[in-house]
Design brief:
Blueprint (H helix, E strand, L loop, with lengths): L5 H16 L16 H14 L14
Helix pairs in contact: 1-2
Length: about 60
């Protein structure tokens, strides 16, 4: 069973390509600064896929003691 749907994987792949070429920006509509972290780029891809309704894992919730 796949962790992400095919459409979500395509979205993450597209975002990672933008990251590698230096065109990926953070923030709403890319108005923030340049993304410098691989983890941040993946998080942006997952977030965009989730917004489109693709199958992605639920957000992890931190439990406080």
């Amino acid at each position: 069973m796949a962790k992400y749907s095919e459409k979500a994987q395509d979205k993450i792949e597209k975002v990672m390509h933008e990251f590698k070429t230096g065109k990926l920006k953070s923030g709403k509509d890319g108005q923030g600064g340049k993304v410098k972290s691989r983890k941040q780029a993946i998080a942006i891809g997952i977030s965009e896929a989730r917004a489109e309704g693709d199958k992605v894992p639920k957000k992890k919730v931190l439990k406080e003691n």
